[in-house]
């Protein structure tokens, strides 16, 4: 099943820590969103494989935008 | 012989040397720990230079820094200009998305009033007590503005207390936040507020200006400038003014503000036992304000199913945005997938306005 990872708070993408095809476990750090000069990590909601990444470093993201898609294993 | 008579070394007192240590310590903390460096560095230098004898930098009518102080702070020009910049930097979106969080910013003024009464009971005059209490609002320019109006002799001590405690927010607040909340409360995830339109953001500063100044006219200089700055920002048509207000102008007035405040702290004025009480009472005010925001959030939760994470109440002490960042950190330490930062910005900004209103009320009652 494909799970969408949504933006938990608006900000800029500070760094993306995974690539398409990576295996991730629940609670692994996927990327970091910078908001109000603070780095906020976003964690994997489930175990699985990253099948699509829709953002890159520097992108401005709004609440509930889709960051990436994880195919649950 | 005239040269020796005019040499500062002979006029030096132990108190002045003690003030050097304070000034140099602030400069040290600003440089090595980066505690509010934009303010504590010029303040520290101001303290140092004003305690070099016979420099006459603060001599009324002729001293260089006296002129900065007189025309900038006594004439009440610098704090409102800082508010212009703060308004241009402020996004009211978080507040407008969840207007009920305004109450948390108001609750955090409790520390201001409790401390006001305690300081008065301890023998400070009403004007001095008000100035000490306002430290609990954790807002530098408001503290300076009120002190210049009501109790100029306390200005330096109150300003340094306010800026020091703001720098120490990450140390002062978390123990209180953890003490007053349960683990389950810290894990509460809040529902996102509604989307705020660009039109609402333009209309808000206009309405807020009218409502607040009609109710508390004495807050007009600070609120007026704050909302004008915000209108620069949200109108999107005066980008040059917006940019100047939040960067160049703010930086320029910060230089004059810092050195002037530092220079008010000469040994005679500063080295009195009242100053120790001021630091103690200021810290107390700060802690009560943190606690009252949290407690009101818990109280509001009794009446709503859309629960508020009580940690965001702590952000009602202004200290923008440090207090909101601390809320985010404490929240994330209970549940790392909980993002409270933007929710905390609502009470945080409401806290700034609340402190200005509290100061306005003091001015209208006491002047």
Explain this structure.
The complex is a heterodimer of chains A (73) and B (367). Chain A has 73 residues and is mainly β. Chain A has one domain: OB fold (Dihydrolipoamide Acetyltransferase, E2P), CATH 2.40.50.100. Chain A has no helices and eight strands. Chain A has a four-stranded antiparallel beta sheet with strand order 1-8-6-3, with no helix packed on it. In chain A, strands 5-4-2-7 form a four-stranded antiparallel beta sheet, with no helix packed on it. The termini of chain A are close together. The model of chain A has no long low-confidence stretch (mean pLDDT 93). Chain B is mainly α and 367 residues long. Chain B is 71% helix and 0% strand. Chain B contains 21 helices and no strands. Chain B is globular. Chains A and B meet through strand 5 of A and helix 20 and helix 21 of B.
What would a concise description of this structure say?
The complex is a heterodimer of chains A (73) and B (367). In chain A, 0% of the residues lie in helices and 56% in strands. Chain A has strands at 2-6, 11-16, 23-24, 29-35, 38-43, 48-53, 60-61, 66-72.
């Amino acid at each position: 099943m494909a799970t969408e990872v949504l933006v938990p708070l608006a900000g800029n993408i500070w760094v993306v820590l995974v690539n398409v095809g990576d295996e991730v476990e629940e609670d692994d750090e996927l990327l970091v969103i910078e908001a109000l000069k603070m780095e906020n990590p976003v964690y994997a909601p489930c175990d699985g494989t990253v099948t699509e990444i829709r953002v890159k470093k520097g992108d401005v993201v709004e609440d509930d935008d889709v960051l990436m898609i994880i195919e649950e294993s | 012989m005239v040269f020796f008579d005019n040499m500062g070394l002979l006029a030096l007192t132990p108190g002045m040397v003690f003030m050097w240590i304070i000034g140099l310590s602030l400069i040290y903390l600003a440089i090595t720990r980066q505690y509010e460096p934009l303010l504590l560095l010029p303040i520290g230098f101001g303290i140092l230079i004003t305690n070099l004898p016979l420099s006459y930098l603060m001599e009324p009518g002729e001293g260089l820094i006296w002129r900065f102080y007189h025309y900038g702070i006594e004439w009440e020009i610098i704090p409102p200009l800082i508010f212009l910049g703060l308004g241009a930097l402020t996004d009211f979106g978080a507040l407008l998305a969840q207007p009920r969080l305004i109450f948390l910013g108001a609750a955090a003024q409790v520390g201001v009033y409790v401390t006001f009464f305690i300081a008065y009971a301890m023998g400070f005059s009403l004007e001095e007590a008000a100035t000490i209490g306002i430290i609990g609002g954790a807002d530098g320019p408001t503290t300076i503005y009120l002190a210049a109006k009501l109790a100029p002799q306390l200005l330096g001590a109150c300003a340094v207390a306010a800026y020091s405690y703001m720098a120490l927010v990450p140390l002062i607040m978390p123990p209180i936040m953890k003490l007053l909340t349960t683990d389950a409360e810290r894990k509460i995830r809040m529902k996102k507020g509604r989307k705020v339109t660009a039109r609402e953001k333009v209309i808000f500063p206009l309405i807020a200006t009218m409502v607040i100044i009609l109710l508390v006219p004495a807050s007009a200089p600070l609120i007026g400038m704050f909302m004008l700055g915000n209108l620069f920002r949200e109108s999107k048509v005066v980008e040059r003014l917006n940019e100047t207000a939040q960067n160049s102008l703010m930086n320029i007035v910060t230089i004059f503000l810092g050195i002037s405040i530092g220079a008010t702290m000469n040994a005679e004025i500063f080295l009195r036992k009242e100053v120790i009480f001021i630091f103690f009472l200021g810290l107390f005010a700060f802690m009560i304000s943190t606690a009252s925001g949290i407690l009101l959030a818990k109280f509001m939760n009794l009446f709503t199913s859309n629960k508020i994470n009580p940690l965001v109440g702590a952000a009602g002490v202004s200290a923008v945005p440090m207090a909101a960042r601390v809320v985010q950190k404490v929240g994330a330490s209970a549940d790392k997938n909980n993002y409270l930062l933007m929710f905390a910005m609502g009470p945080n900004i409401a806290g700034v306005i609340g402190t200005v209103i509290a100061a306005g009320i003091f001015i209208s009652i006491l002047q």
